[in-house]
Amino acid sequence: MKNIYDVRYEKNLIYILPSEPGCLSSSVRSEVYPNTVILVYLYYLDTLSVYWSYLDGIPEEIQVCVISSKEEVLKEVRRHIEASGRAGVQYILKENRGRDVSALLVTCADLIKNYEYLCFLHDKKEHSEEVKKDTDLWIENLWGNMIGSSGYISRILRLFLENPELGVLAPPEPVGDYFCTWYGYGWHDSFGITSELVRRLQLNTDIRPDKPPITIGTVLWFRREALRKLFDYGWSYADFDDEGLRRHDYLSYGIERLFPYVAQDAGYDTGTVMTGRYAEKQTNYLQHAANLMFKEAEPYFPVNQLADLECYQRNKGRIMEFARRNEEVYLYGAGTMGQFCLTVLRKENIQPAGFLVSENNGESVVECVPVTELQRMERLQERAVIITVYELAAQREIAEELRRRGCRKFICMWEKE
Q1: Distance from first CA to last CA of the chain, Å, rounded?
Q2: Taking the complete model, does pTM exceed 0.70, yes or no?
Q3: SS3 string of 147-189?
Q4: Domains of the chain and any CATH numbers
Q5: Which pLDDT tens digit goes with each residue over 215-271?
Q6: Which of 22, 49, 75, 299 has the most Cβ atoms closer than 10 angstroms to its Cβ?
Q7: Apex CA 210: angle with CA 300 and CA 391, to 5°?
Q8: Nearest to 375 by CA among 400, 356, 394, 396
């Protein structure tokens, strides 16, 4: 069993859908739409207008349920929806505990049993002016990528119909100048509570701290069967202690990240879905951000291609094991890559004995480590050497020279597959 992050990547479970009028036949619509519900939790009265266009775009045949812990919010939503001419919407006032997560798992627990395809959304509000731009894009991410238009909703339902192994569709990880989730830091110290929930629900899944979660929040589409185990657990409002909202082990933070693992246990995949419009914005942002980060990181981490990063990941463990196994280790090459290897080793509390070079350019010490010409190194056959140079031809030449001089304990830092 593979981790859900790797499954999404390897199966390319990223869907970009147009928002134009839908493509479901009338017969399929008559069967699927009545079996679909969109659940909306709203809390902030002053931002309701942000969501009107999204709510107005939901097809009439799809059931809508609005939940809030504030009567004034429900009253205002009802006023808008009834003015738009839509009928049959269900309004539920919930206990003000557990926020959006309890709205899904507790308030809607019985309602969920009546539908096969479900979407859950909630509102969001910035808590400081500096993150308003990022938060506005996040709201578009959450709502636009879930219910961007009636045509878009029909295409999401078609995805479920055409891909029976697909259990969950979530918006992409949010991007933004003040957000770090999108480049792999999705746990935010909540791995512990998430793994505890995996244990509590007895999920057969692959969860690891070095693989980020792919759902951040409770906004998602899902097939009821994919998350049955989560809803059958029997949650109550008492499970949510809102005094712990600022703690990383707060229950909701684990549940927000748990959905794909529940789906995997049930035999379903989790994918990411977005509109073409949002995909354009995200691609533009990621291109800019990747360029900025690689350029600034280059003096400290001198690799600038994905192939280099993957090569480094493959070889790092080998290098560390080799260095720990040998008492006296030398680094062949005192240039950029040699100093990079030195930094990596020192971070693991490993101090090389020195640098080896083919010809000394006059430097006897680099980064407080002595530099020795190969021809002047005594008892070379007793030394262990890490070849740090990147070019394959140079690696082979150095390896041959080490063998010729009797050295048999050496390893290449940038060994290709």
Answers
A1: 24
A2: yes
A3: HCCHHHHHHHHHHHHHCCCEEEEECCCCCCCCCCHHHCCCCCC
A4: 4-295 (3.90.550), 306-412 (3.40.50.20)
A5: 999 999 999 999 999 999 999 999 998 886 677 788 999 999 999 999 999 999 999
A6: 22
A7: 40
A8: 356
